[in-house]
Fold these 2 entries.
Entry 1:
Amino acid sequence: MKIVVVGSGGREHAICYRLRIDGHEVIAVPGNPGIAEICDVYEGDPKSLDADLFVIGPEAPLVAGLADELRLMGKVVFGPGRDGARLEGSKAFMKEVAAKANVPTANYEVFEDTAQAHKFLEKMQAPYVVKTDGLAGGKGVLVTNDLDLAKRDVGEKLSGSTFGEAGRRVIIEEGLVGKEVSLLAITDGKKALALIPATDHKRLLNGDLGPNTGGMGAYAPVPWLSQAILDRAMTEIVQPTIDKLVELQIDYRGVLYAGLMITESGPKLIEFNVRFGDPEAQVVLPLIEGDFGQLMLEAALGNLLQTKIKSNGRAAVTVVMAAPGYPQKPVIGAKISLPPTDVLDRDLVVFHAGTAKDEQGNLHVSGGRVLAITGIASSIETAREKAYKRLEVVYFQDAQWRDDIASNALVDN
Ligand code: AMP
Ligand code: GLY
């Protein structure tokens, strides 16, 4: 198949990598230097291209309606239209749909007024959770036990000083307690199939300390998550949401990513994303048995023929190397030293996220999250060892990474 992949991050590198392993012809728009090593890249408008399938990687073009525009031209697209993408584009809309579908999630209220929001916080119990309504690259969420900090954060978000327009409405919600899982499901608009679950590491620093980021590393599968809980998440959260979207006449074809908290009383929804997770894609996509392109094509055509997505039995661990100053103010420009590798290796891949090449062909840092170093093996321990061993020989000045990605994968329960 000829497949166009829109995007330029680590997630899109992982999508292109997997599609190339499956033998497809891939054109990435615009791609990045790592993607350019495995397929064609194109700087222009994806609408000017012809292909059997269009896959839209990031949330921003989905929220902006790129899938609708392509569909109007008769193209086959994996990714929801503007209507479905609101599940991620507006947390208030996501909460509304979840409530209508009886999906278990944190209690919440929406505010545009600082004084009212402060009053609400004063009546709440810690932990306090304050979110921007609009898109904020995974960084618009504060979870804290400190009431004063929560109040200050509300003031900053609503004034537009920290997140611009995205923060002009905030959601304040009940803090959920438990362990997090990223459950990505492929849907054709009617039914949904779970991919292998993954665990992200959202905080910047070892031991889950520091600010929230887009994700500093991930592993899959999740040994401490039982099949029973996974089944409950599909029947209590994912499928009722898709059914509700059908009722709302939203034809959602693509990936529905449920960020879950596994609480004492079962799985609860933290958020929906309308695209593959980043860095979850880097660990989930290498584990799919069979042809990933075919799976996305079936979903895009509105007719998933498979009844289950099988795992190839392997495990993957990815460690993100981020720029100094990430997530607040990433410093870009440092030169990257990266030993050459087999770019379609099945066991070890360095996915590019925020890299660019200068005129001399030298690789440098161009974004917050720079590289996602991914080990794939028969066990999480071996995958983890591979990733960290490679990280030792990759260098850019003042790189940040966590040393404890997947270190608790097997002891957690
Ligand atoms: P979100 O962008 O909504 O996924 O939030 C980012 C991160 O903040 C999540 O992955 C959680 O770690 C944390 N978080 C968000 N909402 C809650 C909540 N209601 N209770 C506890 N932690 C939360
Ligand atoms: N890793 C979290 C996300 O993709 O939103």
Note: Residues 315-391 form a domain with the Glycinamide Ribonucleotide Synthetase; Chain A, domain 4 fold (CATH 3.90.600.10).
Entry 2:
Amino acid sequence: MPLISVVIPVYNEQECLPALFERLDRLQASGSERYEFVFVDDGSSDQSRRIISDLAERHPNVKYVFFSRNFGHEIATTAGIDHATGDAVVIIDADLQDPPELIPQLIQKWQQGYQVVYAQRRSRTGENILKRFCAWLFYRIICRLSDVGIPPDTGDFRLMDRRAVEHFRRCREHSRFVRGLVAWTGFRQTAILYDRDQRHGGQAKYGLFKLIVLAFDAVVGFSNVPLRIGIFLGLLICTLSLAMAVIIFLQKLIWGIPIQGYALLATGMFLLGGVQLSMLGLLGEYIGRIYRESQRRPLYIIAEKSDSLPKGYDGACIGGPANATSPPDSGAPDG
Ligand code: UDP
Ligand code: MG
């Protein structure tokens, strides 16, 4: 009987957790699969941890990882995937926007031989028009720009086969876009369609600012088009200024028109200044990434976790000091 790990990132979801577990629990009662539920608490300040600990006490297949502070949704999801031991791993939000009842459909596709099965949103209820528009625009942009074929209108709700999981685990970058990384692993991927529900309770944790940051991470992490825009723009403007210089020179030479110096100079200066600034900004972004990776900080720091989970994962980078000799436990399996 296959073991399915369900990974649930949690941040202040006390209103949703009891209902979520009830619905998840019903799944295992009805299906032929065994389940393990890996809750990753991302530094909640409400009763979420207590609820999860209570669940873990009563149900041996409920496991947990508690972060020492809020590390963000993408890192929490990663920690859950790191610790999952199942033959397949399902990622699901804690707020019941993604109906757990779809999991058997994901499993069915997996059993048909797909390594990644993602749930694609046909509609989204309970989200305001601005968020819906931003999401729509974001998916269109990232699908256009990225080279790895990130599917549109697809959140983190998906199933990954063990093999895809192993490869996903090798990506230890800090600015993470989990959906992109899953798409990056390749393999056979397919979609099922669903209608996204409203939040069961509590508040959405992704404000517009966090969404913009995520979108930025996605675009810079999975596309080098922004870099090309800079180079293209720079070349274009250089060509134009050269052409202008030639025209002014010819005017003076052929028609004897005096050169109107300062206006042209000022324009040229501003143009070049703009190009330089944008290029510098872009370079800064890449240098910033190199800097962050070279710091080799652990991805997350765990305050507490179930005894039954594998030991040793502490989010260290490949070859990090804590786990230099044991790659499978280093948070970077297969180093
Ligand atoms: N979440 C998290 N850490 C955070 C923010 C959110 O683990 O810093 C979890 C949250 O508890 C939920 C999931 O990530 O299970 C998605 O968050 P949310 O529902 O706020 O995002 P949205 O559905 O609005 O995109
Ligand atoms: Mg949500």
Note: The beta strands are 3-10, 34-41, 62-67, 88-91, 116-124, 154-161, 189-196, 302-305.
